Amino acid sequence: MTQENEQIKVLFLGDMVGRPGRSVVKHYLGDLFTSENKTYDFIIANVENASHGFGLTEKNHKELGEIGINCFTSGNHIWDKKDVYSYINNSDKLIRPWNYPKGTYGVGYRIFDVKNTKIAVLNFLGRTFMNPVDSPWEIIQNEIEQIKAQAPIVIVDFHAEATAEKICFGKFCSEYKISAVLGTHTHVQTADEKIINDYTAYITDAGFCGAHNSVIGMAYESSVKRLVTSIPERFDIDESPILELNAVEMSFDAVSGQAQSIKRIQYIKDMSEENK
Hints:
The protein is of the alpha/beta class. It has helices spanning 18-33, 58-65, 84-87, 136-150, 163-174, 220-229, and strands at 7-13, 15-16, 42-46, 71-73, 109-114, 117-125, 153-159, 180-184, 194-196, 200-203, 208-211, 242-253, 259-270.
């Protein structure tokens, strides 16, 4: 039986962008696992940009699963590497947005055993300034009761563009006693972490993991050329040596699922010394 007031500590890593993102995550988790002061019961990462900035290869899926990440969330770019279709149905970690049409490869949520409780992780796409998808609002209304009957802790990755939509969805989810709503997609960490209605941990965007001096993970040169000329330009991953990791750490009551805390993390790692 779960003890009353036992806390479950969760780390959520913002959108991982290419090799720099994978590298800084590996270093950060490596430092965590050798520290006696910081341990997490469950680690989630958004991986939709983890393979050269677009999608997730099976090779990278395997590598990231070996460094201590328990669950992979995603978004609209998860389909960019076509080998995802060959492994997504067999993955026990990867989640694609739930509000894609029925019949889409993969699943929109998973339930995990963590200590003496269960954590449900749900993934949704926003609909403002995004491609058409089913309503995440209706799915919450129709499905959350059966999810919460299985898992007291429910964490949502809301992969969306508009801040207003994210804020509104966070408040909406708090009315259904969802433990956390964490925004992804814009790759810029916001400073509005809070607990809504004394229950739901929330942040508009958790940020990204990648090159610190980049344009949301991409090289400045290709980014500015595209913006100045308005001509489609191939985006290149920024490979500069200073890396950045954005994340949030949270704690939840293991019985009720109520959020107890949420804190932003920004970790900077200079890889130039490592590579000498």
